[in-house]
Write a structure and sequence with these properties.
Alpha-D-Glucose-1,6-Bisphosphate, Chain A, domain 4, alpha+beta, about 45% strand, about 30% helix, 9 strands, about 180 residues, disordered N terminus
Amino acid sequence: MVALLGALGSCFTQSAHAESAIQRYETTSPASGIKAGGARVQVHAPIEVVERVIMDYGSWSQNIRKFEKAKVVGRRGDRTHVYLQVPILKGATRIWVVAEFDPIKRTDAGDVIVARMLKGNVKRLDARWKLSKIDDQNTKVEFELLLVPDWPLPVPDSLVTEEATNAAEHVVDGHRRAAERAAG
C-alpha cells in the first residue's frame, strides 16, 4: 500500500513548476483524523477573473496538470456536480469522484467555494477555496483538500496528507496560470 501512495506521490510531487510564490501547508479537519493539505498563492488577476476560472470546472483538465478528466455531469438547484479523474501509478489506475460544488459564498473575509464528494473510489474528499481581494488586480487563492483513501491496506496518515498537499499545490498553480492568462 505504501508503494501505491508512493506512485500517487510521483503523480503530484513533481513540483507544480516549483513556484516559490506557492505556499504549502497542512491543516486539521473536524471531519477526519487525517490532516488536510493546502496551498495558497497570489494571483495577478482580478478576483472576478479568478472566480470565473475556478468555476469553469469543465476546463480543469486543460488548466491543472495531472487532472485527466473534469466534466460537469449535472446540477441540483444552484449546485454543480462535477466528475473528476486523476491517474495514479503512471496511468495504471485512477482516483475518481463526483463532487458537488456549492455556489460561491461571499463573506467579509473573502469568497468561499466548497465541494464535497457524492461518490467515488475514496472514502471522503472535501475541498475548499477561499479567495481574497488584495487589490483590483491581485487575488489571494487558498485551497484545502481532505482526502481519506479507501484502500484495503492501512496507509500512514502523514503520507495521505502529503499527497493532498501536493495536489493542492497543483490546483492553485493551475488556477493561477489560467487566471493570469485570462486577465491578459
